Amino acid sequence: MEFETLVQSRRSVRGFRNEPVPRAVIEAIIETAKRAPSSMNTQPWHVHVLTGSPLEEVRRRNMEEMVGGAKVKRDIISHGEYQGVHRNRQVDIAKKLFGAMGIARDDKPMRQDWVLRGFRQFDAPVSLVLTYDRVLDPGAVCHFDLGALCYGIVLAAWDRGLGSVINGQGIMRSDIVREVADVPEDEVIMTCVAMGYPDDSFAANAVRSDREHNEEFVRYVGFAD
User: Fold this and answer.
1) What backbone torsions phi and psi does residue 208 show, to the nearest 5 degrees?
2) Bridge partners of residue 195, in order along the sequence
3) Among 19, 9, 21, CA closest to 155
4) Distance between CA 172 and CA 164 in Å, rounded?
5) Is 0.90 topped by the overall pTM?
6) Which CDD domains match (predicted)?
7) Continuous H helices in 160-222
């Protein structure tokens, strides 16, 4: 698939078929994605691929803890609640998703169910937990590198017929992920990528978020025209 077509067609998938993903496919995806740019070739990233009973334990315990009122316990510093234009964009995509799923504004049980799906990593058959070397903190460069790897993963997956959603909700309790997946203490858990074969009958999978016009966020400096 041509790169521009790949980028334009890719979307977040929030409903997956109950179908396992072969390890060889995941290995091929990572083999492609690891060519992502890396500052000074430091390659600060690690990928922990979970499926089966370990993944089930992570999502069950994560959901139970969060529903039970436990505090978020992530390795990375959170920005807190969004405000202003960032909040507006967050609300906009939520409206699109709830509209597609037929979830009314005052339907609290269904809204809660949607939140629980996020805590369960949308019941995807595979989760790639992305970490970076703790020795490189504090600093944004290693975060940038890991983001590049992450985007490479989701594009390589889409090219192979797999959908994905970058899902911080699924690892709100990073201590549980660390325990179950045996993630070393010298690695910082940043996010996860829930992955599987898309369920085309799941309405939310057809939803695409809007993007601002280039004029809103791009400046050209020094061009003759």
Assistant:
1) -125, 135
2) 126, 164
3) 9
4) 18
5) yes
6) PnbA_NfnB-like
7) 174-181, 214-217
